[in-house]
């Protein structure tokens, strides 16, 4: 089910989810190598029906981009998985044909309207719509956009260091979805320490899931939100921040970054925009002893 898109407001900025895919494929034990079956029962009341398929026990997730409209700019946070990409070793992303651009158009935005794309990181499901295959070539989808990402991500995913068996989901991604952006002169790098960008954004380093992963803070008129990126893949990790996903590449750093995001979120009551939670994909965390609780907004 496609959840009806709601538009959020932070000060004078609006945020709308542009959905690409709903996933119902990962078992908890696959997504979380530290999964404990004893966690199922006490959490079942909120897991089903929208966060877990009651029939299969699979976790329900989403892949989407966040459309951010400021008075001056039209911005995407990450770009999903893209159409026509060759991912033979990763069937979820292989040769997709989704109406992502039609959904963007339904929100009132054409590709040429996008003037910035801010990337949390450069994994397969976050850079895909950077490019489209036209006449056999990968060309930028958003011809007027500056694509902003951390230098560490480019250095690593553009190098042979990342082109190995451990990084199967990333094989070919840099070549078809990031390199054409760089070749077109549309790339802009953020230092590995993060920093302010435009008037309303701050890149916050949250490495671990990937080498130069960034969460992106948004501020307007005293209100603050955080695009978390892949510090979490499912609200189960709000309850169990000590569980890394199978896709987290640097384990210790991923744990620390997840805890930082949850603590910031709880302490400052931040509206969190996640890349992979189901339902609205946005919400709040509150402290519950050593753990946290999640509430969709
Ligand atoms: Zn992801």
UniProtKB/TrEMBL annotation:
Q: Which SUPFAM superfamilies match?
A: Metallo-hydrolase/oxidoreductase (SSF56281)
Q: Which Pfam families match?
A: Lactamase_B (PF00753)
Note the superkingdom of the native organism: Bacteria
Specify the Metallo-beta-lactamase domain's residue ranges: 62-276
List, in alphabetical order, the Gene Ontology terms for molecular function in this entry: hydrolase activity; metal ion binding
Q: What is this protein called?
A: Beta-lactamase
CDD domains referenced in this protein's UniProt entry, alphabetically: metallo-hydrolase-like_MBL-fold
Q: Which residues form the signal peptide?
A: none
Q: Which family does it belong to?
A: Belongs to the metallo-beta-lactamase superfamily.
Q: Which InterPro entries does this one have? A: MBL_superfamily_lactonases, Metallo-B-lactamas, RibonucZ/Hydroxyglut_hydro
Question: Which UniProt keywords are present, listed alphabetically?
Answer: Hydrolase, Metal-binding, Zinc
């Amino acid at each position: 089910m496609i959840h009806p898109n709601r538009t959020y407001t932070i000060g004078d900025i609006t945020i709308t989810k542009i959905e690409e895919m709903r996933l119902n494929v990962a078992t908890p034990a696959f997504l979380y190598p530290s999964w404990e079956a004893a966690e199922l029962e006490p959490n079942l009341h909120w897991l089903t029906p929208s966060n877990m398929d009651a029939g299969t026990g699979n976790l329900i997730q989403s892949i989407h981009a966040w459309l951010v409209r400021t008075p001056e700019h039209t911005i995407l946070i990450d770009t999903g998985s893209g159409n026509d990409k060759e991912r033979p070793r990763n069937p979820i992303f292989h040769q997709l044909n989704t109406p992502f651009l039609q959904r963007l158009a339904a929100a009132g935005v054409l590709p040429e309207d996008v003037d910035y794309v801010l990337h949390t990181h450069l994994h397969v499901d976050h850079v895909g719509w950077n490019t489209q295959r036209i006449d056999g070539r990968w060309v930028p989808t958003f011809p007027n956009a500056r694509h902003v990402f951390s230098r560490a991500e480019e250095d690593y995913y553009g190098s042979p260091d990342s082109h190995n068996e451990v990084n199967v989901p990333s094989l070919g991604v840099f070549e078809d979805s990031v390199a054409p952006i760089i070749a077109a002169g549309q790339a802009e790098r953020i230092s590995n320490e993060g920093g302010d960008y435009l008037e309303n954004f701050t890149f916050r380093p949250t490495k671990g899931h990937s080498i130069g992963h960034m969460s992106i803070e948004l501020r307007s008129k005293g209100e603050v939100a955080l695009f978390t990126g892949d510090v979490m893949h499912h609200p189960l990790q709000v309850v169990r921040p000590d569980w890394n996903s199978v896709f987290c590449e640097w384990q210790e750093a991923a744990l620390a970054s997840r805890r930082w995001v949850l603590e910031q979120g709880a302490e400052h009551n931040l509206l969190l925009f996640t890349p992979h939670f189901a339902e609205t994909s946005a919400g709040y965390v509150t402290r519950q002893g050593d753990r946290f609780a999640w509430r969709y907004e």
